[in-house]
Structure formats: structure tokens, C-alpha cells
Amino acid sequence: MLEHTLTEQVAALRDGAYSARELTDAYLARIEAAGGALNAYITVTAAAARAAADAADAALAAGNAPALTGIPIAHKDIFCTDGVRTSCASRMLDSFVAPYDATVVQRLAAAGAVMLGKTNMDEFAMGSSNETSFYGPVRNPWDPARVPGGSSGGSAAAVAAGLCSAATGTDTGGSIRQPAALTGICGLKPTYGRVSRYGMIAFASSLDQAGPMARSAADMALLLHAMAGFDPRDSTSIDQPVPDYAAALYQPLSGLRIGLPAQYFDAGLDPDVGDAVRAALGELERLGAQLVDIALPHTPLSVPAYYVVAPAEASSNLARYDGVRYGYRADNPVDLEDLYKRSRSEGFGAEVKRRILIGTYVLSAGYYDAYYLKAQRVRRLIRNDFLDAFDRVDVIAAPTTPQPAFRMGEKQHDPVAMYLSDIYTIAANLAGLPALSVPCGQVQGLPVGLQLIGRDFDEARLLNVAHRYQQVTDWHTRRPPETQA
Amino acid sequence: MSISSDEVRKVAHLARLEVPPTQLGAHAAQLSTILELVEQLAGADTRQVQPLAHPIEASQRLRTDEVTETDQRRRFQTLAPQAQDGLYLVPRVIE
Asked: Which run of H or E residues covers position A43?
């Protein structure tokens, strides 16, 4: 049953091929056996999961079970879970037990999903390798000497290694798509405002979006349908109806225009990764799509603009951690300033402090216009590039990352090199556009991702293209060598 | 553009972070490499471009002014490192 996709498990649970309790027990056993080496989970909620699975079996027997009843999932430890530790992989929140559920958590529970636990991540979602977690790095199931990507690295590794059926992630600059690509799974960052941010610990509020991580586009369609929708508790949530993503999966691709941005097939792209992506584009062409060369000229400015906007917003959001109301507090403070400074310095890790310092600097008097306003103007240029391109094409295709998974420690001491590993994913966040990554090949035994970027609120089209691709290819069915169930 | 050790010290204070004097130089060097990356923005002509704060440019919604949340002070204060009699405790501010 663990080799089944989420979509197959939904059918099997309804057919009675196995029970929700059996499925949950199987994942818990696997987490017990293989989870420790990967360090994918921060917290496993076994007893609550078994109780939820029993309730799911009762609902299935009663015939009133919602769409995801009995499906065992994991939540990135950035989502608040009522009564369960929500650490954001930081010493600052090591003892924080959330007093409420994030909307994403609430909605997936209402759809019947069973929570297995909370996954590891980069501290406060700041990282591209999952090496900044207070709880230690996550390892890539394809090669334990390599990173799984970040910041949703625990969710990605857990899905790839079969430690859950699917997982939630968040994507501020690529944190769903990049780890999905590096671990051979599927991940979708929805349009900004599509999924509620309520109860999702804030990093950069104008960029953060939650999305699904799973084994297939069809799985993501079911998950997104449960997660998406207007939420009055998130002031940036957009009030738009949620389409039936699963129903749109089978649309034919004939006549679809796919844009290929020259700036995403540049000198920085590993030639073998480029070949894998081009092979995927060939498949899409055979399915009837038309490939169109396009330009997104401001792409090279996306990483610089991001490293102003994101740290600026982070420095503001993380000002709330003061050692007073919740979170880590330093011992024996001599005065209030000492309490603030030492609680924050001891509670935050190096990368978080680095971004707070950059953010504080670019927002400080005399620099605000030159950095923050300038970056926001460039942000509009980047979004305008996409809007111009979408006059000519329906979807944009590109590699998700320039290289396959890198070695642990390789970029840890060179922040700029680490930041540049998100070069192909950041622009979609700045522009607010939906984007997904699906596996499209391997380079020296390591997975490679194809990225699809769509128009605002066109997630259904992205899932449709990915699904048609997955019907004629099998890259998404490949599992890491030691975890083939 | 590079940032000096003295600027790091000032910014750290603004951010209420403690940076030991021995680490100021290392921080300055690292932050400078990030600012060098950011400097590329200066090359873009943005004279006619309005800043983009919200990607979908939605305006802030207003809600009706009515009570929607219940009082959970007791529950929230169980999360506090130090609280007593419904108050959060901090070091003495006024002598």
C-alpha cells in the first residue's frame, strides 16, 4: 500500500483493499525504521494519527467520508497545529505548542487527512538545503551525502522515501519546488493569495505561499482542492472560487502554447539537466503542445530583488520574537534590552540572524529608497515580463534548478552561492504566479525537475499539463534505491 | 557597496541582536558580499515604474467591526517563559 500514490490510496480505502488504520500503521512503522537516518520529521504524532485513522475507518464504513479520508500526510513544521509543538525548526520555538490550527491544517483535517507528524525544514524557512534546522540537516533519500533542498526539505524527503503519502510545504523563493526537484517528487506553489497563510509562521509575507508536495500531479490536484480557498482570517487571501482541479487533469494539450524563456536555459544550467528538461519538452510537443521561444529579460535581477524584499519583510516579521510572550528566553537578563538581545541572539541561528541584519539594513533610514523601493520597482518589471509573455503563451516551461542535489556542506559557508541555487524559482514568487515542479529525468542517479509557470490562478492548467506528461512518462514513479516499497 | 564593522554594530542594535565585537568583521564581510549581489538592481531603469508591494495588487479588505475572537489569555500565557497573575514578567524597567 505504501507504493501506491495518494490517488490510488483514496480508491483502495474506499474499496476496502486496506483500512486507514493499516495504512497509517504502515507509514508509522516505516518512519520508525527509516525516518531517523533521513531526519525528515521533527515530531511524530503516532497516537493522534492512529486515533484519526480509526475515525477515518468509521467514516468510510458510514459512507460519509470526505475526499481525503484516511490519507496519512505530514505538515511542514511551519504550520501551527493545535496542541502539537510547532518549532519552525528554530531553537526560538523549540518549546512552542501552538494554541490553534493553521487554516491549511484545519482544511486538510476537515477533508479527512490523517496527520502523521511535523516535518523538518530550514530554520524559519530560510535556506535552500535544509542545513539550517536547529534539529540538524535532512538527508536526500537518493544519496544521504547530499541535501534534499530547502526549505521544505523534510516534507520532500518524507514523500520521496515513502514516510507519508503527501506533505504540505511553503514556498517563499522556491522552497516547495526546489526540494521537490532535488528529491524526485512533485510540488506546487499556488498563486499568491490562493491558499490561506493564517497560522503559517510568517517569513516574507508578500511572497509566502503554502502548497502540496506529492508523488503525482493528480495527487496534488486533490490536495490543492482541499487546501485552497478564501479565508477571512488572512487579509491577503483572494476571494475566488476553487475549480475542480481533478476534473481538469485530462484536457488535451493540442494547441497549448508553451513558452521557453532563454534566460532559464543559460550558461549557469548544467548541460545534463538541460538535456532532461528538453527531453520533457519533446514529450509535451508530441502531446500536441507548441513550443515558443520567449524572453523574460529581467530574470537576472530576481535574486538581487528577492534578497532585499524577503529579508526586509523577515526582519519585520521576526521582530515579534522578544523572549516575553512565547518562545526562547535567555537566562538571568540584567535589563529589558539584555533580555531582547540575548534571547534573540541565542534563539536564532546564523542564517536567520544574517537575514534579519540585511533586512534591518535595507529598511534603515537613508537606505529605504535605494534598496527596498528600488527592489519593489524591479519586482514590477519582473512581473511585467511574465504578463507580456502570457500574451503569447499559455504556460512557461523551464528547469526548476540549475543542478541536481548538491553535497551537504558544499554551499553552507557561501551565502550568495546558496542563494543563487534558487535562480529559476524566485521570479514566480516575486510575480505571485503559480508554478510547479515535476520529475523529468535523472543525472548521475539524481532526480531533475521540470518547472511549469502559469498565469494568475491557472493552477488547473499547470496540473493538467503535468498530468498529461505523467501519463506518457514514468519519472514520477521512480523511487530512491533503498526505499522501494 | 560594502558595509563596515561599525555599521554592523548599529544595525545589530536596531535589530536587537547581540554580535560579539570579535565577530563584527566577519559579519561585515559576509553582508558585503550579499549587498554586492543586491547592487545589480542599480542597473535597472525604474524611473517610470511604480513599486509593487502585493503581487496581485489586491487592496486591503475591511471587515465589519464586531467581536469574532474569544478571550484566551490564560491559554496563551501558558506559552510565556514567565507569567504571573495574568501578566507577562520582564526585568524591572523603572527603578
From this structure: strand A41-44
Question: Which of helix, strand or coil describes residue A448?
Answer: strand
Q: With an 8 Å Cβ cutoff, are B91 and A341 in contact?
A: no
Residue whose cell numbers read 490517488: A7
| Residues of A identified as active-site | 76, 151, 175
Altogether, the residues listed in chain B come to a count of: 95
ipTM score of the complex? Answer: 0.95
Which DSSP letter does residue A209 get? E
For an interface test with B, which of A361, A371, A456, A459 has the most B Cβ atoms less than 10 Å from its Cβ?
Answer: A361
Residue B63 forms part of a structural domain? no
Enumerate the residues of chain A whose CB falls inside 8 A of the CB of residue B35: 358, 361
Cross-chain Cβ contact B49/A334 below 8 Å:
no
Contact A458, A436 (CB under 8 A): no
CATH number of this structure's domain A6-255+466-483: 3.90.1300.10
Decide if B24 is inside a domain.
Answer: yes
Average pLDDT over residues A416-425: 91
pLDDT in tens, A72-95: 999 999 999 999 999 999 999 999
DSSP state of B94: -
Residue A484 has pLDDT above 60, yes or no: no
Distance from CA of B36 to the nearest CA of A (A): 9
Which among A298, A348, A416 is the nearest to B37, CB-wise? Answer: A416
SS3 A228: strand
Kindly report, residue by residue over A4-45, the tens digit of the pLDDT: 999 999 999 999 999 999 999 999 999 999 878 999 999 999
- Cβ-defined contact of A357 to B44 (cutoff 8 Å): no
pTM of the predicted protein model: 0.97
Structural domain includes residue B95: no
Q: Catalogue the E-assigned strands of A120-273.
A: 166-171, 186-189, 209-214, 257-261
Q: How many domains does chain B have?
A: 1
- Residue A54 vs residue A266, higher pLDDT: A54
Report if residue B10 sits inside a domain: yes
Most confident of A158-172, A358-372, B40-54, B58-72: A158-172
Write out chain A residues lying below 8 Å of B72, CB-based: 99
Domain boundaries, chain A: 6-255+466-483
Least Cα distance to B75 among B83, B67, B66 occurs for: B83
Beta-carbon separation of A377 and B12 below 8 A: no
* pLDDT digit string, tens, across residues A253-287: 999 999 999 999 998 999 999 999 999 999 999 99
**Chain A residue with Cα closest to B17:** A341
Interchain proximity A345–B17, CB inside 8 Å: yes
Cβ neighbours for A262, distance < 8 A, ≥ 6 positions apart: A293, A294, A295
Question: Which of A60, A144, A174, A92 minimizes the C-alpha distance to A352?
Answer: A92
Q: Which of B17, B31, B62 to mutate to test the interface with A (most CBs of A within 10 A)?
A: B17
Interface test with B, best of A171, A201, A351, A378 (most B CBs within 10 A): A378
Task: Say if the Cβ atoms of B17 and A236 lie within 8 Å.
Answer: no
